């Protein structure tokens, strides 16, 4: 992991918190808990799980960010009548009932908002980090997605059912990733549970099969490096670059598989659902043009397998430049969105994942669409009528997409504000950059070191996404999240 360090004033944390709260209000999100929510928390307690399938003895573990406390899912592999991947998802609906004040707040924001200064959780911490979190050493009720995987990574069977589970080890991406790669020791929490090391190695092997199967189907594999501002003692001390690793890939592969099973399960029970889709890209001609600059001829019509072959070739040929190519393609593909679909309707599909049936179900503590899906799943399991009709899901899907966009704007603004504070001492310096956005609203670029994005205020004529150029930092404004460059 690499980082970029700077010296800043002591009140930057307070400044960023103020920026974050104002941005929440500006974009139609609620930063504070209503009094009714606080009242509902009194007396809530974890359901006992009586009558549910008891899976507590299985070697469940969680793998998440180092600082995560809202643990939504656990994983385990079981070899009984075939190789099973089990994903246990926290039963948030057991405590957050439809029509409650907790539900109303979650429905308003629809997602947790993560900023360097403050986390605006969708659910209060008494729930999301305690009663509805799959915490280590605690018995919890859960919805289990049970997948039988063939030797080639194909899904050969699946089921969804409620159970009571127990997290035996809280693991982290960085710790597990370094251990799997042989660059770090076995994590203490893993070593404390007999046989868990072999369990996680089996999960890693199965995740590799799932990933290869998805790649063959045309799923797109991008560079997923992220920049995270780190606050220490009230100042932006670092812009940390978080790299993908095998532990993150493991969890991503399991979650993609579980979300596909969820969508098909609801359709098979004749229930509508909220689907997560990335439509066929409108800017495919520009993607074709970009690929042509590297000597690759893509088909005239959008083709995910062909695009993945191009991405794989670029990763191998020029790994140092792959992040820029990857970012340009991501920007041209467009955003994901939620749509409501009936059980027998045509699926809009997810272009980037190369799947036609996909929903969000694995993070109900922090995403409202996942909580909606969980309620639908429990109704299907119990053979009850759907708690939401297709007519109700349609405006909910549009609302969740809008609020997700709003949350992304808040997160991006605060990240840019933190970066602006850190970059303020570098005005006048020049950087290599790539165009990440070009429209009537303006042209945006990302510089390479540190990988910070800002607006190109001068010299944008004739540029499009993916073009490379040299820029000079001309100004920063933390309050507005502005980092402005000029073309050299």
Can you describe what's shown?
The structure is a single chain. The protein has 488 residues and is an alpha+beta fold. It has a 5-stranded mixed β-sheet. Strands 15-16-17-19-18 form a 5-stranded mixed barrel. α1 (12-26) packs antiparallel against α13 and α7 (196-217) packs across α8. Among the domains are: 2-258, no CATH class; 427-488, OB fold (Dihydrolipoamide Acetyltransferase, E2P) (Beta Barrel), CATH 2.40.50.140. The protein has 13 helices and 19 strands. The longest helix is centred in the C-terminal third of the chain and has 34 residues, at 390-423. The chain is globular. The relative contact order is 0.14.
List keywords for this structure.
19 strands, 13 helices, five-stranded mixed β-barrel, five-stranded mixed β-sheet, 488 residues, alpha+beta
How many individual β-strands? 19
Helix content: 25-40%
Mean pLDDT: 91
Shape: globular
Write a concise synopsis of the structure shown.
The chain is an alpha+beta fold. It has helices at 12-26, 35-41, 101-109, 125-131, 173-181, 188-191, 196-217, 246-268, 284-293, 304-317, 322-333, 368-381, 390-423; strands spanning 2-5, 53-54, 62-64, 73-79, 83-90, 113-114, 119-120, 139-149, 155-166, 170-172, 226-232, 235-242, 273-277, 337-341, 430-439, 442-447, 453-458, 468-477, 482-487.
